[in-house]
Design brief:
The chain is an alpha/beta fold and 252 residues long. 34% of the residues lie in helices and 15% in strands. The protein has a single domain, classed as 2-Layer Sandwich (Nucleotidyltransferase, domain 5). This is DUF429 domain-containing protein.
Length: 252
């Protein structure tokens, strides 16, 4: 019996109204199990695609179509998204009138940063805050995608659609760019010469596509190179999610 193929999508998220933003838009890159780039990378605004999609399967078909790939209808998709996919639990408690006792340095502030972000700060990585760093538009766009198409928490940092055809995680491309393991992985990716130049020496407009490519590599690594990725400790709160990064990008 043949099993459904798995595709790996990286999404670098632009703001809700990024249509005319020359510096930042949504970008998608698709890889298969063999690390072939599927179709063509895409860059524009996904807002209308998200508005029009009616189900998890439908949004998969639409995302693949944007990348000029015709869906077979039984694909399983693992998607890594470059934006915060949850809010700090302390911030949500504050909205209910429940404050923490004491606050210290910015990067330790539980209103501004989730536990996963504070964990990364302690290991030399500096993620952005959806509260402090003006990425609220992108963050709500990613959270909206989860709520509509992959609302079920399968494990800390992993969300799924009801039928399991779509698995979504949060990726962070910046550490992947300086990872030695990911440098070796990038050399294994099969692509055209023109795409190679775009991804390895991107123009400012292509930077979004390069980030989406690294997210796709993170998604692929979750299943094919698990040991190269930092996984959440047992005590990490599942409601806040987890930012997946290469293990060798962490400092001691």
């Amino acid at each position: 019996m043949m099993t459904a193929s798995t595709l790996y999508i990286g999404w670098d998220v632009g703001g809700w109204n990024c249509d005319h933003n020359p510096a930042s838009r949504d970008a998608l890159v698709v890889l298969d199990d063999a690390l072939h780039v599927i179709g063509k990378p895409w860059r524009d605004n996904l807002r209308e695609t998200l508005n029009e999609a009616t189900s998890s399967r439908d949004v998969i078909h639409r995302l693949l179509a944007l990348c000029q790939h015709v869906a077979s209808g039984d694909e399983r998709v693992v998607m890594a998204i470059d934006t915060p996919l949850a809010l700090p639990q302390a911030l949500l408690a504050l909205a209910r009138g429940e404050a923490v006792d004491r606050l210290g340095r910015s990067q330790e502030n539980p209103y501004l940063y989730r536990e996963t972000e504070r964990w990364l700060f302690a290991r030399g990585i500096t993620p952005l805050s959806p509260i402090k760093d003006m990425i609220g538009s992108q963050a709500t766009k990613g959270m909206h995608f989860l709520a509509r198409f992959a609302p079920h928490v399968a494990a800390c940092g992993q969300w799924q659609s009801k039928g399991g055809e779509l698995c979504v995680v949060e990726g962070y491309p910046s550490p992947a760019k300086r990872s030695a393991e990911f440098a070796a992985l990038r050399r294994r990716v099969c692509m055209t010469e023109g795409l190679h130049a775009m991804l390895h020496q991107p123009t400012p407009k292509q930077q979004d596509i390069q980030d989406a490519w690294h997210c796709a590599l993170l998604a692929w690594s979750l299943e094919h190179a698990k040991g190269s990725v930092a996984w959440p400790p047992a005590e990490m709160p599942a409601a806040e999610g987890w930012i997946f990064v290469p293990k060798d990008a962490l400092s001691a």
